[in-house]
Amino acid sequence: MRILVAGGAGFIGSHLCDYLIAQGHFVTAVDNCITGRAKNVAHLAENDRFSLLELDVTEAFSWQGDAVFHLASPASPEGYLRHPFETLRVNSVGTDVLLALARENGAKFLFASTSEVYGDPLVHPQAETYWGNVNPIGPRACYDEGKRFGEAVTMEYVRQHEVDARIIRIFNTYGPRNDPGDGRVVPNFIAQAVLGQPITIYGDGTQTRSFCYVEDLVRGMTAAMFSANTQGEVFNLGNPDERTIREFADIVVRLTGTDVPVVHKPLPADDPKRRRPDISKANSRLGWAPAIDLEEGLGKTIAYFRQELPLQESR
Ligand code: NAD
Ligand code: UDP
Asked: What number does the ligand 1 atom closest to the CA of 91 have?
């Protein structure tokens, strides 16, 4: 198949490109590198089934093919707070542009949404049927509401134009190629531990997240795209293994073999208190479940950071 990966030079997008290339597909990654890094896919440059085009998906472009994965968007709180208008535009205008391209090609489409559409959830764990508790005017709204618009426009292309589209809601995902500087908890804690700096816990660390290893996520994404009867469906994809941020800090300290202290910093506005995916739908409809546990996934991620961090320091 000829497959377009929007956001292909990003963290998750680059792993998706690897997977699709390994499956024998022809892959075009498009990215404006606003938060991604071309070096994430540099190892694919010599492969004649892969190309990277530097472009902004909020402007129409031409492409011919069979399937479109839309992952283009700043994703870390620091990233979208730095680029609020770009985040709103890529999830609204950009999603419309990519859906129109899929429609023109009769191609399949997948929109990468987020657990942030549940906001600070009042229901726990979160199933796809929950409508969420989002602050529409807070600092995170550019991302949360941008993604909610992206979901709405995706569903209209399904209803009005019969595009073969689906939505996945990704819960906190980590792994090699996480940008060490993007401010998310996994890269922050690992970089701090590896560099011998204090671990920065925001708030008292009792808030929870559930962390999914990137290779598990990529298997789930491709299952959602290519399994039968998934048009117009929404799937949570994440690992239900829920941890407090305090507990997560202790695990990172133990696995890196360091003894750095913990410091507390203020909790960002509207930071969700609890988050855990209900993945029963993905499990029953796609036969999907994560296979890599937190310690194994963190081991691989720490190994990547140990290689990467000296390069970052000298950049
Ligand atoms: P990332 O920032 O590493 O990747 C996103 C990519 O999109 C970047 O390479 C960026 O440069 C590109 N991009 C942004 N705007 C663009 C535009 N207008 N035109 C072209 N390219 C553009 O982030 P990621 O963690 O790999 O996230 C990928 C997708 O998954 C995002 O849509 C994100 O919202 C979603 N998601 C990620 C997580 C997670 O835990 N990583 C959780 C929920 C949802
Ligand atoms: N967090 C933290 N220290 C950090 C970075 C993040 O305690 O250095 C917390 C953050 O406040 C949130 C959780 O870790 O409660 C996950 O944050 P992240 O930015 O990774 O993703 P989010 O789930 O908030 O989008």
From this structure: 32
